[in-house]
């Protein structure tokens, strides 16, 4: 099997480097700037679980000369439309697309472009960022990808993707509830990102401040209420874990959106926060904390673009 990883950034570069190190047939689709950087310095992962330095197979959009079995889509939401265009020649009738993006909006966009039958649901949990020299830096050691058919069924292609991904230095799991997993992950991430970005600190720093713990609780309450109003049930084990993780004293946990914001990089305000407000508004529901977070992020984004 051959995999095309679209985007050799924090997530695509991380999982792709692990797969390449485990001798899977991996190609990265990159744009010219990242191509030059990786050709010069290699693809470098710095991780508490062990560093990786490889010289991977790289192609640009114009060099795609055939279809791939798996496409792992690892771009930011604001780069999605152009990435779908750039990778189109790599998608054939048998190709499966696994998107690592956070949120849910991308699922509709990808389905519209390539058909829902090409798409598996996918959720990844990892904490990685790019440093100034383009190396991928992992915080902590958790690294897992879950994927599944959108209707929860088993299939031969799911089993084949699992065989390809497993035993490559990260956890790769089949999920028969992948859509719910994705919504739950979005719930966690939207609450975490809101807490980090509005309060400008890690979970531990926020809950140590006067009123911080209560704010974190109200943030999870509001995000989960919006998700439920949008029609998605959240499981009790998930909620118990979310409340625990997001109020954990001393926790250094931050979301990737916060790390991007602190580094002065572009963020996914619309996909991670704005889309929840759209869904709340469709149900005539007020979401005052999310509205505050969104406005805060928009001010940051506007300053970045000026
Ligand atoms: N980082 C994390 O810890 C986690 C992130 N996520 C989610 O994963 C998704 C990807 O995020 P992340 O990996 O962090 O983002 P990064 O910005 O680190 O990496 C994205 C990469 O995509 C590349 N890219 C963009 N457009 C194209 C294109 N048309 N063709 C080829 N490459 C392209 C960019 O390259 P270029 O240099 O050319 O701009 C960049 O290297 C996001 O939705 C994020 O929310 C999910 C879980 C954890
Ligand atoms: C859930 C979490 C926080 C870690 O994978 C994440 O997805 C992110 O930081 O973007």
Give a quick precis of the structure:
Helices cover 47% and strands 18% of the residues.
Number of strands: 10
Rg from Cα: 19 Å
Q: Could you state the CATH homologous superfamily of the largest domain?
A: NAD(P)-binding Rossmann-like Domain
The main sheet comes to: 5 strands, parallel
In terms of DSSP E residues, the strand content is: 15-25%
Q: Tell me the domain tally.
A: 2
Q: Cα distance, first to last residue?
A: 44 Å
Mean pLDDT: 97
- Enumerate the distinct ligands: NADPH dihydro-nicotinamide-adenine-dinucleotide phosphate, ketopantoate
| CATH architecture level-2 label of the largest domain | 3-Layer(aba) Sandwich
Task: Enumerate how many helices there are, as a single number.
Answer: 12
Read across the widest sheet, the strand sequence of neighbours is 5-2-1-6-7
Order of helices and strands, N to C?
EHEHEEEEHEHEEHEHHHHHHH
Query: What is the C-level CATH assignment of the largest domain?
Result: Alpha Beta
Structural class: alpha/beta
Q: Given the C-alpha coordinates, what overall shape results? A: globular
> Looking at CATH, which topology of the largest domain would you report?
Rossmann fold
Helix residue percentage = 40-55%
List the uncertain runs.
none
Multimeric state:
single chain
Topology overview:
Layout: E1 2-6, H1 10-21, E2 25-29, H2 32-41, E3 43-46, E4 52-54, E5 57-59, E6 70-73, H3 80-87, E7 96-99, H4 105-114, E8 121-130, E9 136-148, H5 156-165, E10 171-174, H6 178-199, H7 203-208, H8 212-229, H9 236-245, H10 256-262, H11 269-282, H12 288-305
Helix pairs in contact: 6-8, 8-11, 11-12
The structure holds NADPH dihydro-nicotinamide-adenine-dinucleotide phosphate and ketopantoate.
Ketopantoate (KPL) is lined by residues 102, 125-127, 185, 188-189, 192, 255-256.
